[in-house]
Amino acid sequence: MIRALLTVLALSCAPAAADEAAPSGALGVYRAGDWVRAEELAASGSDASSRTLAAQAVLAQLMSGALADTPERTRRELARRAQRHAEAALNIDPDYAPAHLRLAAGFGYEGRYVRPIRAAFMRLPQRGRIHIEQAMALDPTDPWGPAMLGAWHFEVARRGGEGTFGSDLAEGFRHYRAAVAVGTVEPAIPYHFALALVALDPVAHRDEIDVLLARVDQSEAAGAFDETARQLAASLAETLARDPEAARALAVERLED
Length: 257
Description:
Layout: H1 2-12, H2 24-32, H3 35-43, H4 48-63, H5 72-92, H6 97-112, H7 116-122, H8 124-138, H9 144-160, H10 169-180, H11 188-200, H12 206-218, H13 224-242, H14 244-256
């Protein structure tokens, strides 16, 4: 159950879109997909948006799967580095909502690389949800807040049973649907909602899944992060069209890997 909660914070709750207020050089490098260099540039900034972008650049490296073959200790250190960047942003501006979301994602990724009992002792799942809810209170207009909370409810209910840690599928649907209802939402949000639905039941939710995946396909990628989400959605759609059960296995693998 603890592992499920950490997984949803880490993978289903991808970093939000790059902050437009961040330094133009770092933001351009981030959008080009050079996330290592983007972190270096953004980390040199002294404002909350720069340090938040540094955290996001680290999270993008983890989410892309490019580091899957590196030792877990290396990936854990990256997750903790993302946390440090986000915490630095919050030290500058405690009310900067995007930093709360990146910190929550950082907790989730760290939890993937430690034993569940250790994660529970560190209160990583609980701290993650607290920061998601803080972000939503600070900025109700950011679709990533409800998307992350929706993912939280879905995955905890899937792995631990509905009611675990207060999980509620109806709440998961409500928050996720509110997130995708935003007209300018980036492709990663409908992709992750579709992923959660495929893992839940690819047949019962097929109509909504198809709508979500079509929306991802029709979206415009604003950079490398969005393009990665589009590619992942395309492979999921292809597998779903061929074999719904294989798609379900793929979705679960992506949620748990």
